[in-house]
Every structure is written in C-alpha cells, then in structure tokens.
Write the structure tokens for this entry.
Amino acid sequence: MSEMEVVIAEDVTKEYRRGSEIIIAVKKINLKIKKGEFFVIIGPSGSGKSTLLNVLSGLDTPTTGRIILDGLDTGMIDETMFPKIRRERVGFVFQNFNLIDELTAIENVEAPLWPTSLSSKIIEERALTLLRLVDLIERKDHRPRELSGGEQQRVAIARALINNPKVVFADEPTGNLDTKTGEDTVKLLRRLNKEQGTTIIVVTHDESLIKYADRVARIRDGKVQEVTRGKTPG
Amino acid sequence: MTFRILIKSLRLAIRTGKRFWIFVTIYAILMATTSIFLDGAINGGDILPVLGLVVGTAVMALFYGLIISGYRKMQVATLRCLGWTSGDIKWLFLGELILVCVAAALIDLEVIIHYMGIGFYFGFTPAVIQSLPFLLTFLLIVGVQFLGVLVAWRRMLKVKPMEALRKA
C-alpha cells in the first residue's frame, strides 16, 4: 500500500440476504482513494453507493475482498477496536444531519470527544475553532431546531472534523438541502478539504457535485463503471 | 470521561422536557406511596402493598427503559458512528434514570417540608413520612432503575452504527 492512499477497496463484494434471495449490493469493487482527495461516488438510487460507503468506512464488513482504511485492514480488526478507530480516524456527515436535538450546536460538535481523556477545556476550544471555521460561532448556543437546514449541516461538518479525522465520509450531504444551501455546503466541504488536507469521500446522486471533485467514481448496479477526474483543478 | 458523559446525560434528560417531567411525577407518587406503606410495614403493618409497589416501580422502570431506548435509537446509532462505545452509551441511560429518581425524591421532600410548615402554622402535628422509610424507598427505587438501564442498554447494543445513515 502506498503512503498516499487512505482508503483502498480490493475486490470488494457485499451481499445481503433478503428472505431466501441473496442480493449483491456491491460487486468486485476496486478503488484507491488518495490522502487529501475530494472523492465523489455518484450513482442513482439503489446503485449500491450507500452500501459502498458503509463498507469503505468500516461500518459494515465486505462479504469478500478487503478494505484498508488508513493502513488498517478492517477485516482484521477486532470488533471492540472499531469505536476507537472511528473516534480517531473517521468523521461522518449524514444526509439528515443527525444532530442531537437536546444538545446545543457547540455540544453537538463536542460530543464525539466526550468519551476521550481530553480535558473539557481543550474540547471546547476545538469546538469553538471549528464553529468559527464554519461561520456559526454566534449560533453556538442554539439547539438544532433553532437552526436552518444549512446551519445544521455546517454543525454536522464541524462535528465530523473535531477529532481531526484522516477521512470524512459524507452520505448525500446535500440531500435535504435546497440547491443554493446544498452548493454552499459542498463549497464548505471543499474548502475544508483544501485548507485542512482532510480526505473527503462524498456519496451522492447529485451530478452538480462533480465540479468540486478531484475524482469521481460512477457506480451502477453495484459496479464501478468508471473513475474519472473531476471538473475542478487540483 | 465517564463522569463527563454522566453530567451531559443529566442535561440531556432535563432538556427532553415533557417525558422527563411525566416520569418524575409518576416516580414522586410511587415513592411517596411506597414510603407510607413501608412506614406502616416497619410498624407492624402489611408488607404486601410495599411489595406490590416495588413490582409496580420495576414495571415502570422497564417501561421507561423501553421508551428511552426507542426515543434515542437514532442518537445511539449516530454516537456509535462517532466512536462512542456501548459502555459510553450506558451512562447516557443511567444518568437519565437516576436523575428521574433524585428529582422525584426532591419533589417529595419539598411537599413534605411544605406540609409540615402548614401543619405547624395551623397548630397541628402533621403525620409525615419518616426519614428511614423514605430513604429506604429511595434506595429501593434507584436500585430498581437498573432494570430499566439494563433493558435500554441491551436494546441499544443491537443498534448498528450504520442505522444512522438510513434516510428519513
């Protein structure tokens, strides 16, 4: 494995059993995603892109093949080690934002680090820095219901970055946003990708996101059809 | 860090609002009633009502555990994505269930103190719950809450992190 690659999928297949039927959601996928890349996986609904995200991020295990996430073969890792790996190496951005309603914006950002041995002061400082970065410092004490969809997604992005992850997985990050807010959100992800060097893997069906990508993998019927360069330079 | 999660869980519980206060009220009534019957049982009365109330509290704890685990399912899936272990998540439930008991006990104490004050003001000696049965009841009810925590926690162990990625 090259030092430059943060996620590698080798001959990855994922099968599900639905009753007596076996569904092959992802078929023999090979991908190499480099450090610092803004990588977009695009495909229509039911193409297997969310399954691929689950497998790439270590949330699910492939039926065959292997995933190497930041140098670790996810198939070889003990189940009990996964929380630590997620906490230290991975961030998630969800389509539905998945903020905790009873927590304020800053508390939502801090939450991933609460179970760590870091002091509350350091956690708060990190959260404040990130909220400043996503331009929400003045809304830090607001609860999710008091924030717009775009603001909630920015809080979720700040939360995904609080552990300084090697890679952020974003599942349809613009899916619940209007066009303008969606575009602002992707621009923010792209800016953070460039400024912080965090690898960002976005799964989407939205073609307009291609212009922000370094590379794009098109997936259909569980197979990667092609991997092309995005439309954005560098 | 466990202490930090416990403190945050108390804040989370209070902010859930209606559900929290409904259960505080139910537990306050259960605690007061159990204390009165326990006081009677200590002074030679029947123990059966006390046992009945303890069983009722256990059922309530299980019910509360089920409600919390249903309500927090998506939160738990999200927190697991963010790297929380099942052990960390247990403290979220424990905090809420213990807080409900403490709040209920404080409400009972408040009522007792006011009742005594009114009694002394109007010149009668109020028959109040004695401290020993009240303390015993409190400990008993807190103990029974662990059933609720266990139920909620076991249900949460089944929640897979990737459920957080499910679309609404």
Notes: The interface with chain A takes residues 1, 4-5, 8, 11-12, 15-16, 74-75, 78-85, 88, 160-162, 164-165, 167-168 of chain B (CB under 8 Å). Chain B has a mean pLDDT of 84. Chain B has one domain: 2-167.
